[in-house]
């Protein structure tokens, strides 16, 4: 006799809909860093936004924390095949950050990190409520190993696009590969189309 627990099956099906092809879901939060975790005291931290014609606009920690913050609950997907559902973040939306700019941004962004990591994202994938500069995870200040004090959060792309310890957002007129993209990862990285490698 088959015993079917409908509640459980239904839940599993809904979860399966949220899992991109080739991924498994985990409750862990693995740490993946190409570089050692940098020490970034708040009084030394700066975020610089740079235009393609070398205009620059910097925010220090008090200026960053004064920007509007919002809560975000989202699934994240790492190219090494783990996905984590319902991660809880707080941060500044890219839209609100852009609103502080005195000039028009170009169509592509290179995120540069303390430590040297880089990753490229089209501006369209950062605007419209799709990306944040996160400073809080699960109600706590973002831990250094996960990119604190501030990381990029672009949950609809593979998680390598979510640059930890972000230091500079450099606008570019054309799409240029970052650290992993130069080493064979896909230039765009959509988990639903399994764009893992170039
Ligand atoms: N600065 C920096 N950002 C980074 C990375 C990195 O090595 N350095 N790794 C990327 C990769 S491949 C992933 S999967 C996620 C991992 O984030 P986590 O360590 O918080 O899980 O960060 C991304 N951002
Ligand atoms: Mo990754």
From TrEMBL:
Q: Which domain of life is it from?
A: Bacteria
The record ties this protein, via InterPro entries, to:
OxRdtase_Mopterin-bd_dom, OxRdtase_Mopterin-bd_sf
Q: Which residues does the UniProt record annotate as the domain Oxidoreductase molybdopterin-binding?
A: 36-180
Which PANTHER family does the annotation name? OXIDOREDUCTASE MOLYBDOPTERIN-BINDING DOMAIN-CONTAINING PROTEIN, PROTEIN-METHIONINE-SULFOXIDE REDUCTASE
| Identification of the protein by name | Oxidoreductase molybdopterin-binding domain-containing protein
The protein's organism comes out as: Gordonia otitidis (strain DSM 44809 / CCUG 52243 / JCM 12355 / NBRC 100426 / IFM 10032)
């Amino acid at each position: 006799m088959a015993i079917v627990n409908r509640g459980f099956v239904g839940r599993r099906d809904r979860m399966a809909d949220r899992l991109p092809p080739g991924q498994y879901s985990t409750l862990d939060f693995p740490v993946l860093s190409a570089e050692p975790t940098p020490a970034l005291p708040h009084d030394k931290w700066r975020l610089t936004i740079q235009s393609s014609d070398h205009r620059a606009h910097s925010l220090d920690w008090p200026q960053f924390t004064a920007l509007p913050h919002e809560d975000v609950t989202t699934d994240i997907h790492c190219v090494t095949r783990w996905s984590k559902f319902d991660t809880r973040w707080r941060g500044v939306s890219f839209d609100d950050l852009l609103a502080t700019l005195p000039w028009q941004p170009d169509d592509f962004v290179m995120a540069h990190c303390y430590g040297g990591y880089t990753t490229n994202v089209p501006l369209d994938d950062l605007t419209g409520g799709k990306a944040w500069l996160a400073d809080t995870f699960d109600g706590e200040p973002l831990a250094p190993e996960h990119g604190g004090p501030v990381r990029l959060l672009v949950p609809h792309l593979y998680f390598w696009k979510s640059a930890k310890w972000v230091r500079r957002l450099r606008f570019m007129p054309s799409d240029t590969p970052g650290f992993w993209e130069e080493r064979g990862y896909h230039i765009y990285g959509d988990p639903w189309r399994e764009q893992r490698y170039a």
